[in-house]
Write a structure and sequence with these properties.
111 residues; alpha/beta; 34% helix; Transposase
């Protein structure tokens, strides 16, 4: 893991203050000298939103977001635009490596 945002209380959904928290993470990465352009980002269905994709696009990050059947089933998937988002199932499966290496991360509580 390269960076994470300030922990949020557990009753919030994944997209709670997503632009603010995403900007916080991007600022940390940029301060570390990491170029975000064309960075590939796996995200689970909880992040399937226009706002999240736009946040990635603003930073020129390629978002690999699994569709959320609760909000995507009845709408067309947004088209692939200038390298800003895709969905590759094989690359998405790699995200589980972090989930299994850091099992207690989701249990952290803010001070």
């Amino acid at each position: 893991m390269l960076a994470m945002s300030t922990p949020q209380e557990g009753q919030h959904h994944d997209l709670f203050q997503i632009q603010t928290l995403f900007d916080e993470i991007c600022t940390i990465l940029k301060a570390a000298g990491i170029n975000l352009k064309d960075l590939f980002l796996n995200a689970d269905p909880g992040f399937d939103s226009k706002e999240f994709r736009e946040a990635c696009q603003k930073e020129e990050i390629i978002a690999n977001v699994k569709a959320n059947t609760r909000n995507s089933a009845n709408q067309e998937q947004e088209p692939y635009e200038s390298g800003t988002h895709i969905f590759d199932d094989e690359l998405y499966k790699d995200r589980s490596v972090l989930n299994t290496q850091m099992p207690g991360l989701m249990d952290l509580k803010p001070f």
